[in-house]
């Protein structure tokens, strides 16, 4: 198999790998076969403080060694740290691959004498990087080295795209189920509202909301009150299924990443928060009719719509972030303005209006 077909095969696997762990394993197996390495691995690396690394996928690396590496050896692995600090560049042990040298040893990696190592890293966010490592017991010569370098460079764009698609897949596959409703977009932020991860498509949608202010890698809300409330919830690591709309066009949901079980094995964002956006379900034709025909205030019309879905005062209060007493007063005003004298009449009138 020549180098061009090698690359095409690797690209084909990566194009379908997001959301399919077995294909990530097949990708590593293909690397071993094509580049004649003894083992290889994809690791996620925390670049802050006491740096840590965890295996996402690997091939031909014993479980015992993986445990030793994650518990201790990763802190001694200067090569892995080097490539993570210099992403999107191929390295051979401590040396950029373009200046390949024979017999460069890295004592931190002593898995069955596989001291010859090639590696490249992809940034995940400002604190994490994904590294791809290829390990050899020996390198036969300059020609083999150049083939390894060329293959890694050729594969890097497809690998980077597949990694980010896998991020999105892992979130999208569970976020709708968690929210119980479709969503328009989301960002992942830290407790200081620095953006850790965002999808360009979703960011373009979210940026159009009047209540949102996104500048570079920072997320903010235009309402100081809502911004303060959001920060308070994050500080206490509280989940908010819905934050009342500020711009009358959207709702926000705050979800700590660690509340979503099995969402991530990437671990890049475990201390972060998902801020998801949905359309305001209360912005519909029935709402407009109530306000236009019966001269209801927006708050009264919103309570009327919720009453049509569920007549329980407690449920309406919880859904609209109002006190139960406020909801009762709004419904009294609604009944008076709509000229009905019982909740049964109110329900019938609302349903008739909704089906127009």
TrEMBL record:
Entries under InterPro entries matching the protein: Sig_transdc_resp-reg_C-effctor, Tscrpt_reg_LuxR_C, WH-like_DNA-bd_sf
Signal peptide: none
Superkingdom: Bacteria
HTH luxR-type domain residues: 293-350
Name of this protein: LuxR C-terminal-related transcriptional regulator
Organism: Methylomonas rapida
């Amino acid at each position: 198999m020549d180098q061009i077909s090698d690359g095409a095969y690797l690209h084909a696997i990566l194009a379908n790998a997001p959301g399919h762990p077995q294909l990530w394993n097949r990708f590593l197996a293909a690397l071993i076969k094509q580049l004649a390495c003894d083992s290889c691995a994809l690791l996620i690396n925390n670049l802050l403080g006491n740096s840590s690394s965890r295996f996402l996928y690997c091939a031909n690396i014993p479980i015992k060694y993986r445990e030793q590496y994650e518990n201790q050896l990763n802190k001694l692995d200067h090569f892995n740290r080097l490539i993570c600090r210099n992403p999107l560049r191929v390295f051979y042990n401590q040396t950029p691959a373009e200046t390949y040298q024979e017999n460069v040893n890295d004592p931190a990696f002593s898995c069955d004498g596989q001291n010859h190592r090639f590696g490249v890293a992809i940034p995940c966010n400002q604190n994490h990087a994904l590294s791809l490592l290829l390990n050899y017991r020996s390198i036969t010569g300059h020609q083999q080295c150049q083939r390894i370098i060329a293959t890694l460079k050729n594969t890097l764009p497809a690998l980077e795209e597949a990694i980010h698609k896998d991020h999105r897949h892992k979130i999208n596959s569970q976020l709708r189920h968690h929210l119980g409703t479709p969503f328009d977009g989301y960002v992942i932020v830290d407790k200081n509202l620095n953006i850790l991860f965002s999808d360009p498509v979703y960011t373009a949608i979210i940026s159009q909301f009047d209540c949102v202010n996104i500048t570079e890698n920072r997320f903010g809300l235009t309402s100081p009150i809502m911004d303060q409330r959001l920060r308070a919830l994050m500080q206490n690591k509280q989940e908010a299924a819905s934050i009342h709309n500020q711009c009358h066009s959207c709702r926000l949901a705050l979800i700590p990443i660690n509340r979503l079980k099995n969402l991530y094995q990437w671990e890049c964002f475990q201390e972060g928060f998902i801020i998801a956006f949905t359309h305001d379900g209360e912005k519909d034709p029935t709402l407009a009719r109530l306000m236009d025909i019966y001269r209801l205030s927006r708050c009264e019309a919103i309570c009327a719509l919720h009453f049509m879905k569920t007549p329980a005062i407690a449920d309406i209060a919880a859904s609209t972030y109002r006190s139960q007493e406020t909801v009762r007063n709004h419904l009294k005003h609604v009944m008076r303005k709509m000229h009905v004298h019982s909740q049964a009449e109110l329900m019938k009138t609302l349903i008739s209006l909704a089906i127009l």
